[in-house]
Amino acid sequence: MSLGFGLLSAQLRPGETDWSRAYQETISIAAEAERLGLSSVWTTEHHFVDDGYMPSLAVVSGAIAAATSTIEIGTGVILAPLHHPLRLAEDAATVSLLSGGRFTLGLGLGWSEVEFAALGARMDQRGRTMEEILSILPQAWTGQPFSHQGRVYQFPELAVRPAPSERIPILIGGGAEPAIRRAARLADGIYSNASTNGFLRQVEWIKDECEQIGRDPAELRIVHYSVILPGDSAEEAWARYTDHLWHMTWKYSDMEASASRPGPPPAAPGMTEADRGALLRRATIAGSSDDIVETLLGLRERAGVPVEFAARSYFATLDYESQVELMTQLAEEVSPRI
Q1: What is the reported pTM?
Q2: Cis omega before residue 264 (within 30°)?
C-alpha cells in the first residue's frame, strides 16, 4: 500500500486570472505523482468559487488519464446530489474506458446551499438522493436496459452506454454515521478525512453495519486522507506550510460569499490567534518522514483493518517547484514504508 496524493483543485492564486496555468499544472502534478511512484491522485469539486475551485472532475480525470498510464485516478469527492445519476454514470464510464479501468468514483453529499440552489438540487433530501444514485449506478454500468421509479429520480427503461469494461469502484466520503453505514451497505468503501478518534468510530460503524447485513467488511476499501506536511521536523514543516494551509482552510469559509463576488480572488486575511489555534488542532500530520510513517502506521494498527492513505498535500498557493519538492519527499521517504 503506497501513498496517494491530492486533493487537486485547480484554483487560482490570489490576484491571478489565468485559469489555463492552474489546469496545466494540475495535469502536470498528476503526471509527476505517477513518475514518483505514488499510487493514486485525487480531485475535488466545488462550484461558483471565485478562484475557480474545480467544478468538472470527470473532464479533468479524462485529461489525467491521457497524461498518465498507471496511476489510479479518484474523485475525492464528486458531490453526487448535484449531478443527474444517468449523466454521472455516462461520465464515469467514459473516464474508466479512457483510463483503462484506473478510475475510482468517490461520492459525497455536499454542503453549500449556494451550490444546491443554483443547480436545482434539494439540500433536504441529500441522503435520499444518494441512496437512489447508489442504486442506479451499478445498473447503469451493466449496459443493459433498466428503469427506475424513485422518490427523487424517475426514468423509463433504457440502457446507459458506453458501459465500462471493468467494474467502477465507488467510495463514499463524509463523516456522519449515516454516510458511513450507507457506504457499508451500498458502496465499495469510504474516503475519509476524519480525525483519529472519528476515523476509528467510522471503522466500528462499518464493522457493525456489515455484521447486521451479513457483509464481509474485508470487501470494503478504507482510504484515509489527511493533510501531511513533511519537513526536517514538525516545527520546520509548520513554518514552511502554515500560510498555505491557512489559505486552503480559510477558502472553505469564503466559498459561498465568493460566488457573487467579482474576481480576481483575494488572499486570505491574516490569522488571528484563534485561527492559528484552530489550524494547529485540525487533523494534520507534520514532521519528519519518520514521524509521518509512525503516525500513519499507528492509525492503521489501531483501526485493525487494512487502511490506505492519501496525502492531502496539494496547496493552490504553493509554487509548482515547491509542490514537486513536497511530493518527492513523500514519495521517496514515506510511501515505500506504509
Answers
A1: 0.97
A2: yes
